[in-house]
Amino acid sequence: MGLHALEQRLERELELIAFNRPQWVRPRTFAGEDVLDVAVIGGGQCGLATAFGLRREGVTNVMIFDESPAGFEGPWETYARMVTLRTPKTLTPLDFGVPSLTYQAWWEAQHGAAGWAELDKIARGDWMEYLRWYRHVLDLPVVNEAKLVRIEPLPDEALHRLHFADGTSELARKVVLATGIQGGGEWHTPAMVRDNLPKALWAHTSEPIDFDALHGKRIGILGGGASAFDNAHFALSQGVEAAEVFIRRSQLPRVNPIRFMEKVGFAARYPALDDATKYAAMDCFLGHNQPPTNDTFARAASWPGFHLHTGAPWLDVAEHNGLVRVTTPHGHHEFDFVVISTGLISDPALRPELAEVADLIARWGEVVTPRGARNALIDAHPYLGDGFEFCARQGVDGAPLHGLFAFNYSALISLGLSASALSGLHLALPRLLRSIADQLFLDDKDVLVEEFLAYDDPEFFGEWPLPEAGDAA
């Protein structure tokens, strides 16, 4: 078919379903400055889909801001080092039911139906190319190299002023933090690494790593999740002599609870659960850890320089003769460099852009009493409303939070597999979009209802009795 033909078909499909609805939100200015109805922070898959989906809600005064250069939004061309995505190729998270907008349609337009049938999983680089095409073909408004550093609430005006690293600012009624897996907190690095080693000797998997400089050297990797094996394979493919993965468990995790959640409606219906059940479910979910995919593990393990240490937590880390000495219950190991793959912590207090409002945000640890033991990771998460909106702590004025939405991984406990998880994104987007549009409508309800009550534009012009033919003449 070719991409040009696909794009023409997409245009026709969007026309047939009247996807682009008329704008109904009343324009606003403040102190002579135009106000965005919605500012989306993050131009990756979640941010792009949010901006596009808002068109169906009749909300078009939207702008996306991303700190990365154009075409490098999200993790796919920065710190993600997997060969393929881990999710099934048949997922349709961003298309809103429009066939020509699916990844499969994009792939088949270039490679044919036979190529799709032969494809096992989506290659990481191909997914990024699809996102670039998605942005282009939908003409989505993105400002790149715009790093948000501060959200300044203007509660008396129900606005937020967004301050960017280059000194510019924007006003917005609603702000969607579509900031990915780390956007609700920070990547976790154990204190023994952070405090004991110079930064030149270690990096987190979320950071750029100069593997060319590590050619022929030995690296140690802490963590047993999928990204640890992604990085081991990638490092070895770039010429690292040895990559050794250390996990504290006696064996690798076997169960991926996401697969169950995808099959039985758990992902879709999770938000309907009561809080205590959500707490118990996510305590179980976080306890599993996500295992590497079978092909990821096989690729890493096939290298002669790969080794896996089980039952081997790091007890101490220190610099020794210019190397990193790692101590485990089984003895000492020395590496030229170490890579940390120990997950993340979700907590609004860790986000610099939320510094002025973080103390107002309710946390799970304050709102919910679990049936069993407390989980510190769960307790630090923000307690969100049904539409991904931040909620205020009991007894505080929540006005500065009005209009702020956490559409990132910190929504996991409140709303399940949703933002940043391709498995749940197609379920989460309608919930978010409805919530934003409802807020905009309710904020302006007095004006809109007044205009409705005063509306008297005639539409019907018939008369009865019918005029005589001569009268009409």
From TrEMBL:
Entry annotated with the keyword Oxidoreductase: yes
All residue ranges annotated as the FAD-dependent urate hydroxylase HpyO/Asp monooxygenase CreE-like FAD/NAD(P)-binding domain in the record: 39-181
Alphabetical keyword list: Oxidoreductase
InterPro entries: Auxin_biosynth/cation_transpt, FAD/NAD-bd_sf, HpyO/CreE_NAD-binding
PANTHER family named among the record's database cross-references: FAD-DEPENDENT URATE HYDROXYLASE, FLAVIN-BINDING MONOOXYGENASE-LIKE PROTEIN (AFU_ORTHOLOGUE AFUA_4G09220)
Name the UniProt record assigns to this protein: NAD(P)/FAD-dependent oxidoreductase
Lineage: Bacteria, Pseudomonadati, Pseudomonadota, Alphaproteobacteria, Sphingomonadales
